[in-house]
Amino acid sequence: MKRFVKRIMQRFGYDILHLPTDPSVRQQLDLLRKYNINLVFDIGANTGQYGQRLRKMGFDGQIVSFEPLPDAFLKLKSHADNDPAWSVVPIAIGNFIGESQLNVSQNSYSSSILDILPTHLESAPESKYLHKINVPVKTIDSLIDQYYNELSRLYIKIDTQGFEKQVFDGSLQSLHKISGFQLELSLLPLYEGETLMYEMIYLLREYGFKLMLVEGGHRNYETGELLQMEGIFYRG
Length: 236
What we know:
Layout: H1 2-11, H2 23-34, E1 39-43, H3 49-57, E2 62-66, H4 70-80, E3 86-89, E4 92-93, E5 98-105, H5 118-123, E6 129-138, H6 140-143, E7 154-158, H7 164-169, E8 178-186, H8 197-206, E9 209-216, E10 228-235
Parallel strand pairs: 1-2, 1-7, 2-3, 4-6, 7-8
Antiparallel strand pairs: 5-6, 8-10, 9-10
C-alpha cells in the first residue's frame, strides 16, 4: 500500500520522504539545506559509509569520494556504481602533489599517512598497522575545478586519521568556493604530529568558518574517555 501511494504521489509531481528522527542527523540535514549544499567532497571515504549516510539522510546532490586504500576503494566503488551522482577517486588528499606512504591498519578505517600513537592503540587494538603502501596524493586546490562550477555549493568532509590539517592546508586557495567543512577533531594526540581540536577550531574560525554542530566520535570504551569528535563548520 505504501508503495502504491508513493507511485500515485509521484505521478502528480510529489514525493514522500522519510526524514531522520535522530536529532543530530536532522540538524546536519537542516544545515545542508540551509546552505543549499549540492556538492560534497568525501575525503577519506573508506568503504562509502559517509556517502551512504548522506543518501539515507535525503541528500540527493553530487558526492565525490576519495579513498586511496585499494581494498576499501573496491567496496566504495560497489556502493557508488548504481548512483549516477556519486563519483569515486582512488587517491589520497593532502597539502602536496606527489606520492606518500600510507600505513594500512587492521580495521582499514584507521589507516593513515601519520604514525599511530599508543593512546589510539590502547582504545582500539584493531587499529594496529599491518604494512605500508605507496599512494598518490593531490590537493583540493589541484582538483576542485574538475567538479566545481558557478552553481556549486561545496561541503567538504575530511576523515583522514590525524591528517585533517594537511588536507585543509591544501584547500587554502579555494576557500572562497567552499561553504562548509566536516572534520574529525582529536582531544588527545592519536597520531604523531596531528593538530588537536582546539587549534583546528581556531584555525577554521580564522578563515571564516564557524563551528555549528559537534557530534560524538571515538572513545576509549575501557575508561569512557572521549578521544575524538566530529566538528561541522560553515562559513559565518
